[in-house]
Amino acid sequence: MVTFLDPEKIIEQLGIKQDWNAAEFGCGQGGFTIELARVLPKGMVYALDIQEEPLSALLGKAKVEGLSNIKTIQCDLEEPKGSTLRDGVLDLVLVTNILFQSTKREEILREAKRILNVNGKIIVVDWKVDSPFGPEEGRVSLDEIEKLMRLNLDMKLVKKLEADTYHWSAIFEK
Are 125 and 167 in contact (CB under 8 A)? Predict the structure, then answer.
């Protein structure tokens, strides 16, 4: 059966506590951000993207849904300290469908690690290498990201998540 990426389905696999603080890297119009804000009513969700237009659209959606725990940040995640967030302030960082777009994957993941607290988790969601849909170039496998995280960032793969027919997803911890 063919399935499509469902933020709610990914997030329910994470064991999130209502007071966590989280971020979505490359949030676009915020499919994951909106769902995170719903399950983190006592926390804050940072929506980070390089483009201003989708961030504005996301704020409009949040307002319509009555979500006041979202803060948008226009930034370049490929740059050192690009998120503009302080070290160690988040419990969770979602890196959703952006690694295929970048040649600076390690820099993006290093930034995610920098802003995590000591027990923080990075969740990566990206296109399967053999997917018949999606971008034709730049795809990266879970094996490649697991190796990068383990060898270069001293983070370990703790769980593979059920994503959809065309994406893989996994949780990494310090």
Answer: yes
* SS3 state of residue 152: helix
- Size (the chain), residues: 174
Q: Measured between alpha carbons, how far is 105 from 157 in angstroms, rounded to an integer?
A: 16
- pLDDT above 80 for 1: no
Judge contact between 23 and 85, C-beta under 8 A: yes
Q: What is the pTM of this model?
A: 0.95
Q: What are phi and psi of 6, to 5 degrees?
A: -125, 105
Q: Are 125 and 85 in contact (CB under 8 A)?
A: no
Report yes or no: 119 and 15 within 8 Å, Cβ to Cβ.
no
| 37 touches 69 (CB < 8 A) | yes
